[in-house]
Design brief:
Length: 341
């Protein structure tokens, strides 16, 4: 059984790749440079794995060549999309790769891979939220929700709004494609909030850490010692559960046509700091001392309460037993300790 995985060099994709190979799939993964390709090949010598170069996913038709030259594809996992704030132009560097990338994968499969049964798309909690509801303790987020921000908001809003719109528009593009084209395959989407967990992709140094794990690097480098920063979004999930969700959503027939809100639940930076303090006494000099540290507004769960979440569909349909914040935090720090500063 053959699977195409886009963006195999990414934090989440590296775990999806590991799980696919472990379950015996033959995998073709795409990256944007030869350097990244050889790093992945070196990690899996002898595996049923091909690494192909797709230099620019923002170009419509970007995936035509790789899909046309890969006979016998059964499934697709589309994870590649920008998740960073190092861009200057939201349209060309964020929205285009997100939205055109998704459309390009789907149209390449429709044209060149008639055997594909399902395409799993990595979406995000960003496509469920409404920014106003993030301040509403009575709100319960689920797959029924769609981010009301528009494409225009993505061009004119804050960097966070632009990223959220890129995810919402990309996921919407996938559902619109299915409704419009009625292809031979169906689609399932995975919507994680902040993803933490050990690093399985190649990293030269901690400076290159992926966006959602950056707080753990800051923590062990002493940047939280005087003040615990705001948590941001208060929902999280372990990367291994996100990878499992991708593969289960591909394998289970009943997952087709569904969105999955994959979250383990609430967390705060203050909780993370406490877990790391309890588990890594050798790091004590870098970590916040509960007796003296200040907690910025939002560093702890707000006293007035936080929006709720309903993860029951992902729990039931995908069969996920969510990894705890304790295990994730310990495994994340251990994995970061193996990477040069
Ligand atoms: P990473 O930054 O580690 O991975 C992003 C992947 O997309 C990399 O393979 C990257 O390639 C590729 N990519 C980004 N921009 C482009 C581009 N312009 N052209 C080609 N490839 C590109 O982050 P994650 O693993 O966290 O993100 C993976 C997916 O998960 C994304 O779709 C993201 O939106 C989504 N997501 C992540 C969450 C999180 O908290 N981590 C939460 C919710 C959703 P390269 O290695 O070359 O940079």
């Amino acid at each position: 059984t053959k699977v195409l995985l886009t963006g195999g060099s990414g934090f989440i994709a590296a775990h999806v790749l590991e799980l696919l190979l472990k379950r015996g799939y033959e995998v073709v993964t795409t990256v944007r440079s030869e350097t990244k390709a050889s790093q992945i090949r070196a990690k899996y010598p002898g595996a049923k794995l091909t690494v192909a170069i797709v230099p620019n996913i923002a170009v419509l038709g970007a995936f035509d060549d790789v899909v046309a030259s890969t006979p016998g594809l059964d499934y697709v996992q589309h994870t590649a999309s920008p998740f960073h704030f190092k861009w200057t132009d939201a349209k060309t560097e964020l929205l285009d790769p997100a939205v055109n990338g998704t459309n390009s994968v789907l149209s390449a499969v429709q044209k060149h891979a008639p055997g594909v049964k399902r395409v799993v798309v990595t979406s995000s909690f960003a496509s469920l939220i409404s920014e106003a509801s993030l301040a509403d303790p009575a709100k319960v987020f689920s797959e029924a929700d769609w981010n009301p921000s528009t494409y225009e908001d993505g061009l004119t809003g804050s960097p966070a709004t632009a990223y959220r719109v890129s995810k919402k528009e990309a996921e919407k593009a996938a559902w619109d494609f299915v409704a419009r084209e009625k292809p031979n395959f169906d689609v399932a989407t995975i919507c994680p909030p902040l993803v933490f967990g050990p690093v399985a992709h190649h990293l030269d140094s901690l400076a290159g850490i992926n966006t959602s794990n950056a707080r753990y690097v800051d923590l062990i480098q002493g940047k939280w010692a005087a003040e615990i920063p705001p948590s941001g979004v208060y929902l999280w999930v372990d990367v291994r559960d996100v990878a499992l969700a991708h593969v289960e959503a591909m394998e289970r027939p009943e997952a087709g046509g569904k969105r999955f809100f994959t979250t383990a639940g609430r967390y705060s930076n203050k909780q993370i700091a406490q877990i790391v303090r309890d588990s890594f006494p050798d790091l004590a000099g870098k970590l916040p001392d509960p007796a003296t540290v200040k907690v910025a507004p939002g560093g702890d769960l707000p006293a007035e309460g936080v929006y709720g979440y309903d993860n029951s569909r992902a729990t039931k349909v995908l069969g996920i037993d969510w990894i705890s914040l304790e295990k994730t935090s310990v495994d994340t720090i251990k994995s970061l300790q193996g990477i040069p500063a």
